[in-house]
Amino acid sequence: xxxxxxxxxxxxxxxxxxxxxxxxxxxxxxxxxxxxxxxxxxxxxxxxxxxxxxxxxxxxxxxxxxxxxxxxxxxxxxxxxxxxxxxxxxxxxxxxxxxxxxxxxxxxxxxxxxxxxxxxxxxxxxxxxxxxxxxxxxxxxxxxxxxxxxxxxxxxxxxxxxxxxxxxxxxxxxxxxxxxxxxxxxxxxxxxxxxxxxxxxxxxxxxxxxxxxxxxxxxxxxxxxxxxxxxxxxxxxxxxxxxxxxxxxxxxxxxxxxxxxxxxxxxxxxxxxxxxxxxxxxxxxxxxxxxxxxxxxxxxxxxxxxxxxxxxxxxxxxxxxxxxxxxxxxxxxxxxxxxxxxxxxxxxxxxxxxxxxxxxxxxxxxxxxxxxxxxxxxxxxxxxxxxxxxxxxxxxxxxxxxxxxxxxxxxxxxxxxxxxxxxxxxxxxxxxxxxxxxxxxxxxxxxxxxxxxxxxxxxx
Length: 460
Ligand code: GDP
What we know:
By secondary structure, the chain is an alpha/beta fold. The chain has helices at about 30-35, 95-105, 115-120, 130-140, 145-155, 155-180, 190-220, 235-240, 285-300, 315-325, 345-350, 370-380, 395-415, 420-440, 445-455; strands spanning about 5-10, 15-25, 35-40, 50-60, 65-75, 85-90, 110, 220-225, 260-265, 270-275, 305-310, 330-335, 355-360. It folds into 3 domains: about 5-125, 2-Layer Sandwich (Gyrase A, domain 2); about 130-215 and about 395-440, tRNA modification GTPase MnmE domain 2 (Four Helix Bundle (Hemerythrin (Met), subunit A)), CATH 1.20.120.430; about 235-265 and about 290-380, Rossmann fold. The protein is built from 15 helices and 13 strands. The strands form 2 sheets. It has a 7-stranded mixed beta sheet with strand order 3-4-5-6-2-1-7. It has a 6-stranded mixed beta sheet with strand order 9-10-8-11-12-13, with helices on both faces. Helix 4 runs antiparallel to helix 5 and helix 5 (about 145-155) crosses helix 7 (about 190-220).
């Protein structure tokens, strides 16, 4: 990948739409676009000022290809910090491909996924965590995810990391200077000072690491697995929650063979719903695969919605399910309350003594389902969904690096307690400094950059 060439990509979805944008960036961006564009005003793009838009036509030799608006950005004041052009074409896949093809004929290279943002990073306009926030913004599916990625994009996480690194660097420099010049710089009393500093840094890292779990749930949704024996009403509940008939509902036991996954917004909270096949001992091969899957999904669930068919007595199957979910966050939904009940609250409690909550519902007519939202809100957000000023780690890469930094800082503390020589301290401080540097890309290798940016979409 070269920084010196000019790249292009379609930056909008390639489906028929009002407009479609082709983005061009690099040293020749303006000249090469000018070679296929004629402005109505007859002015050349080469003379265009930054942040101006020009109306005209794209030509393939003498043939008009599209009527367009062209925006001109000049380095370093553009997304990539390079000369850039955005061509607003009509949003048809064919016309966009045609204009793209004309550009490549002039020597512009098709960008790889994320290459525009990678250039912004390499040109110092964004640090790595900010670049990652760009992708998070694009994939945000709820208000929290958007808020968290915007904060990160605006550098809140970067500033915090930078200030932690500055603190660590100060200590490293102090130790090194004292070791170099013991006559003038004394290390008397220094271990106590460093220990205090370490405590502060450790509490910062720990708070950030802890923020990951709730941040992840807020960002990606609560991974919610619906369990219950066949015919308990899992598909009916999923359908009710989705508001449309996605799952096949029948009254022959065991027809939900595979898992169905859907995201819903429940009172502002995103739930990633997984409807599993009924768990039961079965000779049926396909059904057994379903059972195994249900178990795997249940293990990684943040929340289990356990449906008990209230109209039929508790069975061995219910006991088996209860055994699987004893340690999980569970909301028991006593379903089919519109029918005569064979199950009492006590029966459920004897099955699952620590059932956090038992809600009577009817998945068929939706009765009682509204209470579910409040219960989930209480369980996961302590009733409060409002945004706060806390900085959340929402990226697993950041969390792992933060854990590395924490381990190194713990090692510093350990060395202090053992009265180890000072160079031990500075080595571990340097490890913490580097781990934090990887988060914002101050420390980075090509493979990492490759991996991160390859997950981006085209044209970004
Ligand atoms: P699953 O096997 O757990 O997915 O169960 P389904 O959702 O397929 O439901 C099994 C049967 O129970 C269907 O005939 C549903 O219409 C019925 N059913 C589900 N929920 C209710 C309910 O709340 N009340 C009544 N009366 N029937 C229900």
